[in-house]
Amino acid sequence: DSGVTQTPKHLITATGQRVTLRCSPRSGDLSVYWYQQSLDQGLQFLIQYYNGEERAKGNILERFSAQQFPDLHSELNLSSLELGDSALYFCASSAQQGQYNSPLHFGNGTRLTVT
Amino acid sequence: GNSVTQMEGPVTLSEEAFLTINCTYTATGYPSLFWYVQYPGEGLQLLLKATKADDKGSNKGFEATYRKETTSFHLEKGSVQVSDSAVYFCALMDSSYKLIFGSGTRLLVRP
Asked: What is the arithmetic mean of pLDDT over B12-25?
């Protein structure tokens, strides 16, 4: 058990809809990362937050947004969903941003299916 | 930009065979290097890491050495088990704190 909790585990929704994915980091971890894993694109970095502030941005679509709350949990919002958004979305956390060799601890992911 | 290249899978081995999964990277500066493993239905787990040139990371019989001269971080294990069947990801973290993954290599170990 990595200590990172993601909910829900599975989500099935229709095109055009909006969903929210939730992540609780390991106790004490200040950084949260979001990744998208799909068969054709592999594991893609979306966005990183550190102690409530956005720190790094990857291949995140404008239809997607995220935030980290004062209690350090994070939410990833996906809107105007398309079939191609179907993927496994992972959240990961790490202790500090200052230690760039600090490993990430991953949750078990949320599997999103857009029909 | 920074990137990681892994050998394509799947890699199919018999139990107790020797494993090598190749990984090379492109990066500015001095990144840290990692191997993660993903078992079916689970998230990624850190397998081992190395933070500077010539460091050797090791865990559960797996090893990888940070080779700056060849920009490589190949994963090896002397004797694989059926329970090692999983997808293995090589990754680097640069000074911008992004963890960049390779495409993953599926390992299948047959009894």
From this structure: 97
Residue A86: C-alpha distances to residues A49, B59, B101 (Å):
23, 34, 20
Question: Do residues B5 and B24 lie in contact, with contact meaning Cβ atoms separated by under 8 Å?
Answer: yes
Instruction: Show the tokens assigned to A44.
Output: 């893609």
pLDDT in tens, A42-74: 889 899 999 999 988 888 999 999 999 999 999
Q: Which residues of B touch A48 (CB under 8 A)?
A: 97-98
| pLDDT for the residue A100 | 55
Mean pLDDT over each residue of chain A, to the nearest integer: 91
Nearest chain A Cα distance for residue B58, angstroms? 14
Q: Which amino acid, one-letter code, is at B54?
A: D
| A58-86 per-residue burial string, b: 16 or more CB within 10 A, e: under 16 | bebeeebebebeeebebbbebeebeeebb
User: How far apart are the C-alpha atoms of B78 and B19, rounded to whole Å?
Assistant: 6
Question: A113 to chain B, minimum CA–CA distance in Å?
Answer: 15
Q: Which amino acid is at A3?
A: G
CB proximity list for B55: less than 8 A, separation 6 or greater: B65, B66
Give me A26's structure tokens: 């390991």
